[in-house]
Design a protein that fits this description.
Layout (H helix, E strand, L loop, with lengths): L3 E4 L5 H12 L3 E6 L9 E4 L5 H15 L4 E4 L14 H29 L2 E6 L3 H4 L5 H21 L4 E8 L5 H4 L3 H9 L9 H11 L11 E4 L8
Parallel strand pairs: 1-2, 1-4, 2-3, 4-5, 5-6, 6-7
Helix pairs in contact: 1-8, 2-3, 3-5
Protein name: 3-oxoacyl-[acyl-carrier-protein] reductase
Organism: Tenggerimyces flavus
Function: Catalyzes the NADPH-dependent reduction of beta-ketoacyl-ACP substrates to beta-hydroxyacyl-ACP products, the first reductive step in the elongation cycle of fatty acid biosynthesis.
Length: 234
């Protein structure tokens, strides 16, 4: 029987590819989204992870329709890129609230059901920026680095109940955003990646699905890079 899976920010990019990967494996998959239309074939739940009431309602809806969440992929995130001296308090707060506090909210709520089940998988979608840093992304890097400390603390707290918490750190991913970068800039990025190419959302999704599988049942508190070697040594 399939598991009940929730992917936050699951209506595009890595989130959508991940949701589809779990669905293809036979799981029942719900995705949260803030705007637009939910993906076809998945349980779409409109939810802003910065709103505690919406998070609670989303979990209630999912529990009613596909049972308690057994696998959580905390993927919802935003950017507000600018240099440190130009970064406003709002730029900082919005990114931390969505990326880090939002991940905390959904992990805490999912853990309640997982504790009752005495099993569960939590996967945080961080970024290579969280380990390497990136000029113009102080807020984003801080939010993604925070996921690592959070996951490792959760791993220690909940491991005795067969609940794992891990982090994946994708590097540059092929998206519409990278496609429109100037050729010279793309070349500069590619030269810094040992494998010489960007990854795909599908490649990231497969790693997330694997770390949430029975094959990875003895892995917890891990940081798994999906960056073509870009972040080696961190």
């Amino acid at each position: 029987m399939g598991r009940s899976v929730l992917v936050t920010g699951g209506n595009r990019g890595i989130g959508l590819a991940t949701a589809k990967a779990f669905a293809e494996a036979g799981d029942d998959v719900a995705v949260t989204y803030r705007s637009g239309d939910p993906p076809e074939g998945l349980l779409g739940v409109q939810c802003d992870v910065t709103n505690p009431e919406q998070v609670e309602q989303a979990f209630k809806d999912i529990e009613e329709k596909q049972g308690p969440v057994e696998v959580l992929v905390a993927n919802a995130g935003i950017t507000r890129d600018t240099l440190l001296l130009r970064m406003s308090e709002e730029d900082w707060a919005d990114v931390i609230e969505t990326n880090l506090t939002g991940a905390f909210r959904v992990a805490k709520r999912a853990a309640k059901g997982m504790l009752r089940l005495r099993r569960g998988r939590i996967v945080f979608v961080s970024s290579v920026v969280g380990t390497m840093g990136s000029a113009g992304q102080v807020n984003y890097a801080a939010s993604k680095a925070g996921m690592i400390g959070m996951a490792r603390s959760i791993a220690r707290e909940l491991g005795s109940r067969s609940i794992t918490a891990n982090v994946v750190t994708p590097g540059f991913v092929e998206t519409r955003l990278t496609d429109v970068l100037p050729e010279a800039q793309q070349k500069q990025y590619l030269e810094s990646i040992p494998l010489g190419r960007f990854t795909t959302t599908e490649e990231v999704a497969k790693v997330i699905r694997w770390v949430a599988s029975d094959e990875a049942s003895y892995i917890t508190g891990a940081v798994i890079p999906i960056d073509g070697g870009l972040g080696m040594g961190y």
